[in-house]
Design a protein that fits this description.
By secondary structure, this protein is an alpha/beta fold. The chain has two domains: 240 residues, 3-Layer(aba) Sandwich (Rossmann fold); 65 residues, Histone, subunit A. It is built from 14 helices and six strands. Strands 3-2-4-1-5-6 form a six-stranded parallel sheet, with helices on both faces. About 3% of the residues have low confidence.
């Protein structure tokens, strides 16, 4: 690969939850002129620190993170919003002679950042309210079945536990009368292919993409369970209760649908016992990790590393596409 390109360098560091991304990012920032941009749809929210494993003050002093802790949990934030904010942050970091290091596990954010976003009908608040009301009354699995009736291809691709994407796919159909799949096929026919790993030549950075994940899936599951219990010991339920007691939040919001928060909210509402909440929270986190790994497997130019490897940092720095861009 020719690194004499006029495009400035950037690094994407991703992986499933609890895989060791943050530890590797800190090592990179300690050694090289990099700044971190968070790629995490939960870290954006204020008042949600423990359950999102948000970096603490000491960590942020060592390695400041952009795009965290700037939105109230009552507000929504789209992948398109992220793209605009991330490109602005990347340009600022590059202007200072540093390398943007994008770290996180929200795969849709990476995809939209690098490939742009498909032309789709704008959001419709009334239709979204109808879908959310249906979900509150009957559950997201019921909404997912309705999506499968009108767009079986999208329903097969989108997991029922991914309500934001289920909602958007059904919303697109109800607004336009055309399925999300049909919209994408029509744009692909026009040369606007939004498939993962497609043409990214328009992206204004030369990207090195890295993923960390334990080779042993059982080890990842163990780390997920351990981290969930640590969060609980650190006061996670008190954090969720403070959100619950505000009175202006509910499970239809993306913030409260975040893994762990949804289960804790159900516990506070009396729908789950504490033990059931713990079990379902861990299961939901494992399911999230599985979806993240599925996304990663379709990422064409990704360099995989075992997050448990004691020589991880040395191996990462030796990969051919990365070495020439580091001082």
């Amino acid at each position: 690969m020719n690194r004499s390109s006029i495009k400035p360098p950037a690094i994407f560091l991703t992986g499933p939850t609890a895989s060791g991304k943050t530890a590797l990012a800190l090592e990179l920032v300690k050694r090289y002129p990099m700044e971190i941009i968070s790629v995490d749809s939960a870290l954006i929210y204020r008042e949600m620190d423990i359950g999102t494993a948000k970096p603490d003050a000491e960590m942020l002093a060592l390695a400041p993170h952009r795009l965290i802790n700037f939105l109230d949990p009552s507000e929504s934030y789209s992948a398109s919003d992220f793209r605009d904010d991330a490109l602005e942050a990347m340009a600022d970091i590059t202007s200072k002679g540093k390398i943007p290091l994008l770290v996180g596990g929200t795969m849709l954010y990476y995809k939209v950042l690098r490939e742009g976003i498909a032309e789709l009908p704008p959001a419709n608040d009334a239709i979204r309210a109808e879908i959310k009301a249906d979900a509150l009354a009957n559950g997201w699995e019921s909404v997912h079945r309705k999506l499968a009736e009108v767009d079986p291809v999208a329903a097969k691709r989108i997991h029922p536990n991914d309500p934001q994407r289920v909602e958007r796919a059904l919303e697109v159909y109800r607004i336009s009368g055309k399925s999300l799949t049909q919209w994408h096929e029509e744009q692909k026919a026009k040369g606007n292919d939004q498939s993962w790993g497609g043409d990214v030549n328009a992206f204004p950075y030369e990207v090195t993409s890295i993923a960390v994940c334990p080779e042993d899936r059982a080890k990842l599951h163990e780390r997920i369970a351990q981290r969930f219990h640590i969060m609980l010991n650190d006061g996670f339920m008190d954090e969720v209760r403070r959100l619950y007691d505000r009175g202006d939040l509910d499970p239809s919001l993306p913030s409260i649908r975040a893994v762990g928060y949804r289960q804790a909210w159900d516990c506070l509402e009396g729908n789950l016992s504490y033990d059931e909440m713990v079990e379902r929270g861990i299961i939901a986190t494992r399911q999230l990790a599985k979806r993240q790994i599925t996304w990663l497997r379709s990422w064409s130019d990704l360099h995989w590393f075992d997050g448990e490897d004691p020589e991880l940092i040395e191996k990462v720095l030796k990969i051919a596409p990365l070495a020439p861009i580091l001082p």
